[in-house]
Amino acid sequence: MKQVLNAGKVLVGTHKLIDPPRLARIYISPRKRAQVTFELLFDSAEHKQALREAGKVLITDRLAEWGYGLYEGLLPGEIRALRKKHGLDLQKPWSIWRDGCEEGEAPEQVAQRLDSLIAEIRTLQSPNMHGGQPADVLLVAHGHLLRAFVKRWLNLSMEFPLAMMLEPGGIGVLR
Question: pLDDT tens across 128-146, in order?
Answer without folding.
Answer: 777 777 789 999 998 899 9
